Structures are given as structure tokens and as C-alpha cells.
Amino acid sequence: MTQEQILEAIKEMTVLQLNDLVKAIEEEFGVTAAAPVAAAAAGGAAEEEQTEFDVILASAGDQKIKVIKAVREATGLGLKEAKALVDEAPKAIKEGVTKEEAEELKGKLEEVGASVEVK
């Protein structure tokens, strides 16, 4: 039987016959006709654009003093607090910031030798 013959036979079926055919195919092959719809809905939810980002200092690198200064400037922390934050790497520098602010801070920290992640 060719594909065209199968399609012609399906075209001649009533809605009830088609429903029975779908159920029989699902049972025979262990599939469900609703799976593509559910996968598309799940994929759509996963594609929502992230609006808040966390900037995480992975490591201070070789120029720790410059990284501490950059962290102080970005966060407004005192010298002691900024040094403690850099010493505790990996550690979040800023959380819940915009993408632009996260990328700007990442650029500043990487410029002075730090390893930074944006999540």
C-alpha cells in the first residue's frame, strides 16, 4: 500500500473512524498524538527571555588588588568587605541586575584580570 493510498483511505473515513484509528496507532506503537503539542508548549516556556542576571566572580586572577578596587567601585562596599568578597571567590558580586549592567560589570572585572560568570 502506498502513502497516497493510505491518505485516500483516511480521507474517506468519518470522524469516529479517524478517532478509533488514532487510538489504535497510539496503542500499537506506544506513542501519543498529543506529544508534539505538549513538547511545543514546554519549549515555548523555556524560551522566555531572562531579565535578571547574577554576576559571579569565579576567581580574582593575578591582579587581586585591581579586582578588589573594581569590586569596590561596582558595589560601593568598603575595602575590607570588597577584599573579603574577592577572597571568597567564587562569589556573587551583584544579583538580579539587568543584562546590560551585568555585561558592563563583567567587562570591567575581566579587564583587570578576574574570571567572571553571568548567570
UniProtKB/TrEMBL annotation:
It comes from the Bacteria. GO terms for molecular function: mRNA binding; structural constituent of ribosome. Transmembrane segments: none annotated. The keyword Ribonucleoprotein applies. GO terms for cellular component: cytosolic large ribosomal subunit. One of its GO terms (biological process) is translation. HAMAP family: Ribosomal_bL12. Homodimer. Part of the ribosomal stalk of the 50S ribosomal subunit. Forms a multimeric L10(L12)X complex, where L10 forms an elongated spine to which 2 to 4 L12 dimers bind in a sequential fashion. Binds GTP-bound translation factors. Belongs to the bacterial ribosomal protein bL12 family. This is Large ribosomal subunit protein bL12.
